[in-house]
Amino acid sequence: MTELAAMEFHPQPQAGEPKVWAFPAPERGTLDNGLTVLRCHRPGQQVVAVEVLLDAPLEAEPAGLDGVATIMARAFSEGTDKHSAEEFAAELERCGATLDAHADHPGVRLSLEVPASRLAKALGLLADALRAPAFADSEVERLVRNRLDEIPHELANPSRRAAKELSKELFPATSRMSRPRQGTEETVASIDSAAVRAFYEKNVRPATATAVVVGDLTGVDLDALLGDTLGAWTGSSAQPRPVPPVTADDTGRVVIVDRPGAVQTQLLIGRIGPDRHARVWPAQVLGTYCLGGTLTSRLDRVLREEKGYTYGVRAFGQVLRSAADGSGAAMLAISGSVDTPNTGPALQDLWTVLRTLAAEGLTDAERDVAVQNLVGVAPLKYETAAAVAGTLADQVEQHLPDDFQATLYRQLASTGTVEATAAVVSAFPVDRLVTVLVGDAAQIKEPVEALGIGQVTVVPAE
User: Fold this and answer.
1) Contact, 165 vs 255, CB < 8 A?
2) What is the pLDDT averaged over residues 101-128?
3) 156-184 burial, b if ≥16 CB within 10 A, otherwise e?
């Protein structure tokens, strides 16, 4: 036999030195019309992202017109003084841009993405939408009908129905936070173009707005471009809007939204906690991630891997409204779904996880995995201009310093296991959680009552 020639292998490539990464810092400025501008040059990111934040919070909606902020946000792309709705959409398409808008408790936000080579054209369209929206009767009527069509579908969605009930339970009836963000059938049906324009004229002006621009700005005279587009938007000045404190009742209790015949029970367990201005926030983020942030979390390990009750359970903190004086708040919650017969056992095991966490604490291994997942993958999370712009806009919306995100990653990396344990135990006290279950009350009410986690009330699904 002929001997085979010895194979020569190329040397195995070795990893290079890791590059130092930090969340990018923006440059701040103000246009002559009072519009605050944050810009961030990101070489190579040829799709530019623009976020515009308007100081038009849901609490500013007139009584009986919940949802008018949402209709206004959607109507921004439905025509201006220069273009009809169809023409406006066609102009956006011609420059390869997308424009989205939504309303939430802090205000209304418009999000634009466009190739850098078409930025001037897209900014002009965005400026026209803000400066002179048409709010045509026919377009507003169509948006109202669309919104009314969406509501029954949302009520039929177990997770959306649970969220609606939790807000109603936590917040006083007088609070806007107790009611659906996008309005109810009754309030949305009352909205017309006059109401939309009145809300716009009262709340939308450049002096209280902020624009965030992120992307490759090589060769772009952004100052001149902004001056010719968003700088042409005019409006009166305004005093800072007072931010009322967030109040909530987290007395331990259970509300079952009855869905006869449901084969699954949707779980949503929550309370109100500190927002990102609190010193405990980094430790709370880390501890909550260990509890239910990923497939390796404690809740998933017990309820999914060991017991097979669910495909996944998540714990999270979501800022509702933030203020520098500490009057803001975040929703701290646990969500998931389990099969109907195991609703009682699943809740019992969930509470056991929380009690064990309070008694024994997190492990160093859990903390290390959480830090690796939260901090180690951050450069990948912010590969796009839109991701950076969205985070910068969040910081503005929540009255945070421009270096908040960069500082947060350093704080997460330095947070110890004991700190993370104390924060997550404080965030999810076993006797101060409001539990909403969307499922078959006839099958789950008795086993849930036997757990002793709070008074059980049954409400119809609507």
Assistant:
1) yes
2) 97
3) eebebbbbbbbbbbbbeeeebbebbbbbe
